[in-house]
Amino acid sequence: MPVNFVISTASPAQVKTDLLVIPMYSDHIFGPGADAVDVALDGGLSAFMEQAVFGGKVGEKLVVPTSDALGASSIVLIGLGKREEVTADGLRRAGAVAAKAAHEAVSMSTTLASAGPTDLDVAEASQAVVEGVLLGRYEYLDYKSDPKPSKLKRVSLLGRSAALRRGMDRGISVGTAVIWARDIVNTPGRDLSPAAFARAAQRLLRGKNVKVEVLDVPGLKRERLGGIIGVGMGSEQPPCLVKMTYAPAKSNATLALVGKGVTFDSGGLSLKPADGMEEMKTDEAGAAAVIAAMSVLKDFGVKTKVIAFTPMVENMPSGSAMRPGDVLTFRNGKTAEVRNTDAEGRLILADALALAAEAKPDAIIDLATLTGACMVALGDKIAGLMTNDNSWGEQVRTAADAVGEPVWPLPLPKEYKKLIYSEIADIRNTSTSRYGGEITAGLFLEEFVDGIPWVHLDIAGPSRTSSEDGYNCPGASGFGVRTLVELASRFRRPNRK
Ligand code: BES
Ligand code: ZN
Ligand code: ZN
Description:
Elements: E1 4-8, E2 17-25, E3 29-30, H1 34-40, H2 44-51, E4 61-64, E5 72-79, H3 88-101, E6 107-110, H4 122-137, E7 154-158, H5 162-186, H6 194-205, E8 210-215, H7 217-222, H8 226-232, E9 240-246, E10 254-259, E11 261-265, H9 274-277, H10 285-294, H11 297-300, E12 305-315, E13 327-329, E14 335-337, H12 345-358, E15 363-368, H13 372-378, E16 383-387, H14 390-402, E17 407-409, E18 427-428, H15 437-446, E19 454-458, E20 464-465, E21 475-476, H16 481-489
Parallel strand pairs: 1-7, 2-5, 2-6, 6-7, 10-12, 10-15, 11-12, 14-18, 15-19, 16-17
Antiparallel strand pairs: 2-3, 4-5, 8-9, 9-12, 13-14, 16-19, 20-21
Bound molecules: ligand BES and zinc ion (ZN) (2 copies).
């Protein structure tokens, strides 16, 4: 059930709503709207805060009893910490707290979007709040026999600027896209075959100014995409590749997106142990983020041309599966010895990156749940960033930081290249060393980008959340969608070497 967002100029004390959400700063400093509420309650708000020892620190929440003096049936105060330290991500988190508090309320009104420091753009603030509300309200209930979804249907942002509305519209667009990605990634493997995933992409992108082409197995063979064919061979569900093109009039730069779309990763003949396989229905998070981001470009009026390639496969063991020791030939003619069929992500990305590079874009970014090693290095909240072009890497990092999706650079040292030399093919898909597995995976991918500025984000950690955390709930997070939208919106050609 979708939520309806509106801008309302009603006063916080009078607005007719089930739940009024008012922000507060540290040391009992009132946030926007609190004065009006306090006056209507004859000073009752200050007194109640005092009594309840509510200070307004980040994460604090307080339900305040109302009387007939207010239009709202109940009030919740949300602590934001020091005003000058409030960030867009802090507002996004507060939006999620508000949405969770409103689980049983049909309507909610809030001044949160005006609670940022003076130098935070109002549009950015309202976008963050709306994203937070949508993502905080999200629950994956498709397989519950008696689902009890949030009752929240109507959210009023209290205020009166055009920027508030602009941010709201953007927040709806991005939040809806992230939810789409989460739904895809949460879908059990049996119910999301590569073909079903491709169809879902086609449905999502209808009317979004994105041309969608799907290559089936004969198409993959014709285009010599030996990596995608090789990995897909073990499954009864045939692989495919989705190519997307967003081509606005008068664009003067091209950005290419690539995403790993493994709908289920059993490991193949190099079968994963049971506990390593439990979460592997989420191995298409990179492709889901790419497709979701494509759906937002039109709404944002993005001026850059954006092309995207998402290879979709199921990695299964069977009599027709690729074997350890097999050699695959990729789109760009390079060959790789498959040492371990569980290192399948790089095999399908190799073809997709080569296709992207052929189109000669100004820059490439790929997102992939690629290695457990990256989670060992950076934990499960931070994505690993590897690049062949530091200025492009910086651009990606700035975008990711701006939208609250943390990434951290890892090197691609030339001296590690020898770890992926093969005795019989050009390269091998696993390293000869036990260490630095995320780096050797990155070095493998670099072989396919033809020197074009490229960033690889290993999102194995942050694509899933294990426990409730801000606007993320257990399961898929939709990580990467916001970064990609931000990147495409502000794209600058990286400095050519
Ligand atoms: N999909 C996995 C990586 C992964 C692991 C994602 C844990 C999310 C959580 C990937 O295909 C994989 O299996 N990688 C192997 C590579 C190894 C065989 C070189 C890994 O990381 O163990
Ligand atoms: Zn794998
Ligand atoms: Zn995988």
